[in-house]
What we know:
The chain has 82 residues and is mainly α. The protein has helices at 9-22, 26-38, 55-58, 71-81; strands spanning 52-53, 62-63. It has four helices and two strands; from the N terminus they run H-H-E-H-E-H. The chain is globular, with a radius of gyration of 15 Å. 0% of the residues are buried.
Amino acid sequence: xxxxxxxxxxVLREAKRRAIExxxxxxxxxxxxxxxxxxxxxxxxxxxxxxxxxxxxxGQGLQYGVDxxxxxxxxxxxxxxx
Length: 82
């Protein structure tokens, strides 16, 4: 379904950047973000994301604060470990 949505220019710019980083289209990125918000995975103040086991990467055990549904954050974490 097509619709018109108005975004703050800075938000749209960041969404486009994140979509490119994730290798997806802007449409897919926005749809997934809305789905995550509707499922309650986004915007829960104080909620701790699940731990990501990275012990095989560098023996550092679990890494807290990484949302498994946020592939861009996971890629950033993996890049930082290289």
